[in-house]
User: What shape does this take?
Amino acid sequence: MAISIFGTKANNTDIVVKDTATGDVDLSSGDLTTTGDVNSATLTATGTVAANLFSGSGASLTALQSAQLTGALPAIDGSALTGISSIGSIEKMVVQEYTAATSGSGGFSNTGLEVTITPASASNKILLLVTGSCATNVNTLVVRFTENNVAVALGDPAGSRTRVSFKVRGQHDNNHSATLSGSAILAPNSTSALTYRVQMTTENNNSWYINRSVNDSNQAVVNHARGATYFYAIELANTTINT
Assistant: This one.
C-alpha cells in the first residue's frame, strides 16, 4: 500500500496515514477535529460523528430513530407511501338546524327534518345522524329515513312487522320529552343530488311531537322547555359497510 504520512495528532501519539491508492485516511484511534469542511466520497466511522450542520440529500440515511428527530417536518407526498391502510375521511357535510316545535299523527309522515347532499363520488357513503327531542302520547314512537322519497336503512323483513330505522321509547308522561337520536350509513352509488328526510309514526297512529312536550304548557319549567333538533348528512370516502 502506498502511503503518505502527512502529520500527527496534537498529542503526537497517533500518526495520520493516507493511502494514496484509495484516498482513505486512517486516524488509528484518534479523532479528526477541524473547523473547515471534510470532503470525501465516503466517510466511515466506528464512533460518533458530530457536527453543527449536515448538508446533502440524505437519501442513503437508514435506521434513524424517530424519537431523536426534532423540528418541523417538510411537506410529504402521500402518493409514495406504501403499506398503510386507507382511512375513512369526511368529504362534505350538510346540516339542518330545526328549531320549530312541530307535531303530526297518522301513518309515516315527514317531520320537516330534511337535507340534500350531492356525493362527489359514487363509491362514497352517506352517514345520517339525527339528534334532538321528541314526545308522544303513547308508549312507542318509530322513525325511518327516506332517500328521494324511498324508505332506507330499515330492519329486515319479518312477517307483517313494521320495518323502521329506529325506535324511541316514549316519555313517562305528557309533561316531558324523550331523546330523539338515530343514525344510518348508506351506499347510494350516486353523484346526483340526494334528499334525505326523517319520517315518524306512533302506536295506533297517535300523535308525535318534536322539540316540545305533549302538553307544552306555557310555564317557565324545564319539562316544557323548547329544544332544537339537528339532522346531518355526512359524505364519507374510503369507508366500508359491513353487514
